[in-house]
Amino acid sequence: TAKLNSVAKAAGKLYLGSATDNPELTDQPYVAILSDNEQFGQITPGNSMKWDATEPEQGVFTFTQGDVIADLAKTNGQLLRGHNCVWYNQLPSWVSSGNFNVSELTSIVENHCNAWDVINEAFNDDGTWRSDVFYDTLGEAFVPAALNAARTADPSTKLYINDYNIEGPGAKATALTNLVQSLQSSNVPIDGIGVQGHLIVGSIPDMKTQLAAFASLGVEVAITELDIRMTLPSTDALLQQQKTNYQTVIEACQSVAGCIGITVWDYTDKYSWVPSTFSGQGAACPWDENLVQKPAFDGIVAGLS
Ligand code: G3I
């Protein structure tokens, strides 16, 4: 039977990957599938490299949990996406407190950003900047501060800006396009745009157009957090529609050379973030809660073939 990363590589992509999280790693059958690098060529830590996990107190860095995921990727021969550096969510209170002036918070951002999905979810859906401790204190300057620091810390790691609701054309995609162009014209390092891809069965935006538009900026593009949720209970009809939707999304990436890879936001419904956030919704992943492949799995394969 086909395996996702093998099919993706044969189709010219760099990887097909999955998110994962430390508490899941005691589940041996889960880990066995996750660790098969023909199935997944890349992994992303779902939580353990976020700010609250890595710098819980100012200047006290704890990479223990993040390193578990990094080591797993290394052992498995998988790529790693670092996730994330600057995000309004999952901040320790010493950062979100807003107790710092411009030069203090700039140093804090620079000190924290050593790689990865450097800027996460900086815009509101209407394309205006999100109000958070970074923007409210520093204005747009937190973006170049973080990117420059990340490049200095690790010259070989790809630096991404990552967001959701930028899958199709619209105000937010335009705002991100303008930001990338302005960073490029001021020589701030930016290598890629991460399109998260938290989608809903039956309403898939025009991703082909938008992924091509992002790639035409001269940066790489990746689908970084793909899942396609439905209102429960799942029915055969919904699962078939989900399969078609997965295929459409994958084909959009497949049609754009600059779309280099795809990551599902965990591969199984067993560990999906969706039901706890959207009550009554779920079944968003290509494997079900019993680690059995769903029609969506075949949709991914078909999209790459
Ligand atoms: O760590 C605590 C634990 O100590 C406590 O007992 C437990 C009780 O609820 O909560 C645990 O924290 C949870 C954490 O995941 C770790 O499991 C948080 O409540 C929960 O909110 C958090 O959810 C994560 C979410 O980001 C937070 O916004 C999801 O697992 C994670 O998949 C999700 O991922 C985000 C991406 O980073 C960015 N894009 C959107 C995506 C989906 O929201």
TrEMBL record:
Organism: Hericium alpestre
Catalytic residues as annotated in Swiss-Prot or TrEMBL: 225 (nucleophile)
EC number: 3.2.1.8
GO biological process, one term: xylan catabolic process
Stated name of the protein: Beta-xylanase
Record bears the keyword Cytoplasm: no
Keywords: Carbohydrate metabolism, Glycosidase, Hydrolase, Polysaccharide degradation, Secreted, Signal, Xylan degradation
Top-rank taxon, per record: Eukaryota
UniProt keyword Signal, yes or no: yes
Limits of the GH10 domain: 1-303
UniProt GO molecular function: cellulose binding; endo-1,4-beta-xylanase activity
Family: Belongs to the glycosyl hydrolase 10 (cellulase F) family.
Localization annotation: Secreted
Catalytic activity, reaction form: Endohydrolysis of (1->4)-beta-D-xylosidic linkages in xylans
A GO cellular component annotation in the UniProt record: extracellular region
Pathway membership: Glycan degradation; xylan degradation
Root EC class: hydrolase
Residue range from the parent sequence: 81 to 385 of 385
Lineage: Eukaryota, Fungi, Dikarya, Basidiomycota, Agaricomycotina
